[in-house]
Design a protein that fits this description.
With 115 residues, this protein is α+β, with helices and mostly antiparallel strands. 42% of the residues lie in helices and 27% in strands. 4% of the residues are buried.
């Protein structure tokens, strides 16, 4: 599954907050991970499917909880930075008067065999 966020006015500012606090310097989405496995000879794709984007929205609280469930933005991973991250991220959304975060969800599956 991939979340596809629109290029909204707040997006670059929000991503900047994530990059400042996340321990990961680079994050690969599913497509990039799969391409890397194929390029390095670890996976031979035999097929795949990508669904049409489905609009999705959630409250700021639910969105922040979703981010906190990820490996790079969990409270355990962020440690001392967790409160600062949440404060800054919520600040970006508040400045842009966002009370619901809207994005598209795309389902992806690929099949093949290890090589």
């Amino acid at each position: 599954m991939e979340n596809v966020h629109p290029q909204a006015l707040y997006r670059d500012e929000f991503v900047s907050v994530i990059r400042r606090h996340s321990a990961l310097e680079h994050h690969d989405d599913f497509a990039a991970l799969l391409a890397n496995l194929e390029a390095t000879g670890h996976f031979e794709r035999e097929g795949g499917h990508r669904t049409r984007p489905v609009p999705f929205e959630q409250s700021v609280d639910d969105y922040m909880a979703m981010l906190a469930s990820t490996s790079s933005l969990s409270r355990a991973t962020l440690g001392e930075r967790a409160e600062a991250f949440e404060h800054e991220a919520r600040g970006v959304l508040a400045r842009h008067q966002i009370d619901k975060v809207r994005f598209d969800v795309v389902g992806m599956v690929a099949w093949g065999r290890p090589s």
